[in-house]
Design goal:
The complex is a heterodimer of chains A (145) and B (284). Chain A is mainly alpha-helical and 145 residues long. Chain A is built from seven helices and no strands. The chains are: A mainly alpha (145), B mainly beta (284). At the A-B interface, helix 1, helix 3, helix 4 and helix 7 of A face helix 1 and strand 2 of B.
């Protein structure tokens, strides 16, 4: 029995270690994953309250940056959220995706966050995109892919 | 065995402590009930916790445990537990280890989200963490030194059902446990919980005391007898308010006071937990 226990622990440690050597590449987005049209049609109730975006930025830093990168430009574990194809989706579609997640693909479900906080995150994604575009214009380099 | 686990644990913590940006998955306020949120893939959660049981007669027993939870994939979370027991009059003992796995078969959110739970336990009769309550009858109260000699290999299964209802989480768990070391039937138990985040909008500044950092809830759990006897009068049932407080981006404090509802249950079951979460293997 002890032998079996040791094997289990070794498997656990190897699996943990394989997480450490994650590939240092930006993950591709999945263009097949789409929100149902009814969900996509929902407007962001915070759209007229730009002051709530700062809370979204904080939430993003805490909950999302480890996979999508601190500026949302993607990392090894999550795709670029500033990408034009992501930003072309409606607020409702982004809300649906982050609420539902895609646990098979590694995107967690965030339905445990109160709805207003999930809308704050959507608002933040829009503000961050505009900020990235502003920076791109200022430097004359096209950051917006 | 105990020493080796301790060494592995120390190396894991030391090797990881310095790394990575802040981050936290959801914080389950429950101690016994499980909801459908798994650990995020590549995240390790380290928790130290304690259950103190105050029986109607006899001395209190305190059961500390260490929990390592790792998100292997988006649909599979594994956990290792090391547990002990201590009491004022009766000394202390290492009470064993548990190896837990949770699987989420469906990828998105549904009205009811199922999760399958399978756990192997190598523990002894002195175990008091009371992470699940099954069967019937009171916990044995022989001296710890005696109880620790009685080993048990147990297999535990749970069906976890969890839903989001408005701002609330509602979870129901059914527990099956088979002691592989003894010729007894399968024991049953249950646990149900409701919880919700206190805050609504997140504030822009980081704050420790604001409402958004708290999750409150209530859980109820108990044993339901076994295939050999239902024994309603002998069962142990509890109801327990729970609270989780996010102290920082990575740390959460959890507390619960369980009230024993039946004769065989402890009068009170105090639980306290401190959770530290770290993402590993994150590269830009």
């Amino acid at each position: 029995m002890i032998r079996r226990a040791q094997q289990a622990i070794v498997v656990f440690l190897i699996a943990s270690a394989s997480g450490v050597v994650a590939i240092a590449q930006i993950r591709e987005r999945d263009s097949e994953w789409t929100a149902p049209s009814e969900a996509a049609a929902r407007p962001n109730p915070l759209a007229g309250r730009p002051e709530t975006a700062a809370g979204g930025a904080k939430l993003f830093h805490v909950r999302c940056a480890s996979c999508h990168g601190p500026d949302g430009r993607g990392a090894s574990k999550g795709p670029d959220l500033m990408d034009a194809a992501v930003q072309a989706q409606t607020d409702g579609a982004l809300f649906w995706k982050l609420s539902n997640g895609n646990t098979r693909a590694g995107m967690p479900t965030f339905s445990f966050l109160p709805e207003p906080q999930r809308w704050q995150l959507v608002l933040h994604l829009r503000v961050a995109r505009r900020a990235a575009e502003g920076r791109a214009r200022a430097t004359g380099i096209s950051e917006a892919r | 065995m105990k020493l080796r686990l301790n060494i592995i644990f120390m190396f894991t913590v030391a090797g990881l402590a310095a790394t990575a940006p802040p981050l936290l998955a959801q914080e389950r306020a429950y101690f016994v009930t499980y909801d459908h949120y798994l650990e995020e893939p590549g995240h390790l959660e380290i928790a130290v916790a304690n259950s103190s049981g105050f029986p109607r007669d006899g001395g209190a027993r305190h059961a500390p445990w260490l929990e390592l939870e790792y998100g292997l994939t988006g649909w599979w979370t594994a956990e290792l537990y090391l547990e002990g027991v201590t009491s004022r009059r009766d000394g202390s003992a290492f009470t064993g280890w548990r190896w837990e796995n949770r699987f989420r078969p469906l990828k998105g959110e549904h009205a009811v989200n199922p999760v399958l739970y399978v756990e192997y336990e190598s523990i002894n009769e002195a175990s008091r963490i009371q992470k699940e309550i099954v069967g019937a009858g009171r916990l044995p109260f022989e001296p710890i030194a005696e109880l620790r000699e009685k080993h048990a290999h147990e297999l535990e299964g749970k069906l976890i059902l969890s839903s989001v209802v408005g701002a609330w989480n509602v979870s129901e768990n059914v527990v099956f446990e088979k002691n592989l070391s003894a010729d007894e039937g399968v024991e049953f138990g249950y646990s149900v919980g409701v919880s919700r985040a206190v805050g609504t909008l997140a504030s822009g500044a980081s704050c420790r005391f604001c409402a958004e950092n708290f999750v409150v809830g209530l859980e109820a759990y108990g044993g339901l007898g076994s295939t050999e006897a239902f024994a309603a009068a002998q069962q142990r049932h509890y109801v327990a308010p729970v609270v989780a407080w996010r102290l920082s981006d990575r740390t959460t404090l959890k507390a619960s006071v369980g009230f024993g509802l039946t004769e065989n249950a402890d009068r009170a079951l105090l639980r306290l937990g401190f959770v530290y979460e770290l993402p590993i293997g994150v590269r830009k």
